[in-house]
Design brief:
Spore Coat Polysaccharide Biosynthesis Protein SpsA, Chain A; two-stranded antiparallel sheet; 15 strands
């Protein structure tokens, strides 16, 4: 039987490190498409994705519904209010996941540079192992620093940079959140690790970057043209012109 995947797109962050024109990172225009739209569109047209939830900050709801009402009308997604911290927002999304969903993928709205191949692989690995995340190995020399002074050179051996989507069997992710208490994890894998459960690493490209700073945004603009092009159904672009639409 085909497994059903639910997607939680985390877009409720405060964007304290980077905003532009008073707009948070997920709502910035990235070559004609909002960052969050470029992120979510990789999931909404997949036949194995049966539910998509976008979690936003309550303070953004009026702007969000007005700005993206045309897009929302053409996409089968649910928009909900998030919480104070990222984990709180993801939990609110997890509480809305239907009982028939086998696996849940959590993805950062500020990571728009996905490809179908990467999603296919992490979905497959999660199905095999119960949980999997996209990640890339650390290649640079790592320094531990205090007051801008090097204290130690840290071995990069066995170190990886975690990315999203992070995909887990629904029951496993629910258990991880049930045992969370007051702990504030930096990602879902950290909660699953605390259960003593293994999380598989699906190697990905460094191009799957998270837009955190203005430099990241400039890199994302450049990298869009380097990713494989995938055609997106025009129904998701109600006001698109007659030129072909590419999904990156």
């Amino acid at each position: 039987m085909t497994k059903k995947y639910g997607v939680i797109l985390a877009a409720a962050g405060k964007s304290t490190r980077f905003s532009k024109n008073n707009r948070k990172k997920p709502f910035l225009d990235l070559q004609g498409r909002a960052v969050w739209l470029r992120a979510v569109e990789h999931f909404v047209n997949r036949p194995d994705v049966a539910q998509t939830i976008v979690v936003i900050s309550p303070e953004d709801r009026e702007f969000f519904e007005m700005k993206y009402q045309a897009n929302l009308a053409f996409m089968d997604i649910e928009v909900i209010d998030g919480g104070a911290e990222r984990a709180d927002s993801v939990l609110k999304g997890l509480e809305r996941i239907r009982a028939d969903i086998d696996f849940v993928a959590v993805h950062d709205a500020a990571r728009p540079l996905l490809t179908k191949k990467w999603i296919d692989q992490v979905f497959q690995d999660a199905s095999t192992h119960g949980g999997a995340i996209l990640a890339t190995p650390v290649t640079s020399t790592i320094k531990r620093v205090e007051n801008q002074s090097i204290q130690q050179t840290v071995s990069r051996e066995k170190l990886w940079l975690a990315q999203t989507p992070q995909v887990f069997r629904t029951s496993l992710l629910r258990e991880a959140y049930a045992q969370r208490g007051d702990f504030q994890p930096t990602d879902e894998a950290q909660l699953v690790e605390r259960l003593g459960k293994p999380v598989f690493i699906t190697e990905c490209s460094a191009m799957n970057l998270k837009i955190t700073t203005s430099d990241d945004f400039r890199m994302a603009e450049a990298l869009l043209n380097a990713l494989p092009k995938e055609k997106l159904p025009r129904s998701l672009h109600p006001f698109a012109d007659e030129s072909p639409v590419d999904l990156f």
